[in-house]
Amino acid sequence: MKKNSEEFKLKLHPRAKESVTLDVPTDTLESLKKVAQSRDMSVEALIKFYVGQGLRQDISNLFADRVLETTEHILSQHIKSQEEVSKIIREIRVEAGH
């Protein structure tokens, strides 16, 4: 049997990078420093974490919107009442918390 450290190896592939300059309010930077320190990470790593987290959420929302648009289009081909199609889409949005 393999040891846990052998079973889970994280393989990161180098990705192209570009530097950006970002003006951040002083009080926000101070807050970032405190949070980064409490998480034992650099401010840069924390900002990358926040950007990645927000980006994944936005991409997920864009994908969900595209799925709903496609669903609405297909429903419209089979259901003649646009009111009924809209009602179904609203129900899906409520159930999905979207």
How would you characterize this protein structure?
The chain has 98 residues and is mostly helical. Helices cover 69% and strands 0% of the residues. The protein is built from four helices and no strands. It has helices spanning 4-7, 26-38, 43-78, 82-96. It is elongated and about 55 Å long. It starts with a helix and ends with a helix.
How many β-strand stretches?
Answer: 0
Fraction of residues in helix? 55-70%
Average pLDDT figure: 91
N- to C-terminal separation?
A: 44 Å
Count of DSSP-assigned helices: 4
Quaternary: single chain
User: What overall form do the CA principal axes indicate?
Assistant: elongated
Q: From the helix content, strand content and strand pairing, which structural class follows?
A: mainly alpha
Beta-strand content estimate: under 5%
Question: What is the alpha-carbon Rg in Å?
Answer: 22 Å
Uncertain runs: none
**Could you give the order of the helices and strands?**
HHHH
Largest sheet: none
Brief summary:
This protein is 69% helix and 0% strand. It is mainly α.
Keywords:
elongated; mainly alpha; 98 residues
Secondary structure layout:
Layout: H1 4-7, H2 26-38, H3 43-78, H4 82-96
Helix pairs in contact: 2-3, 3-4
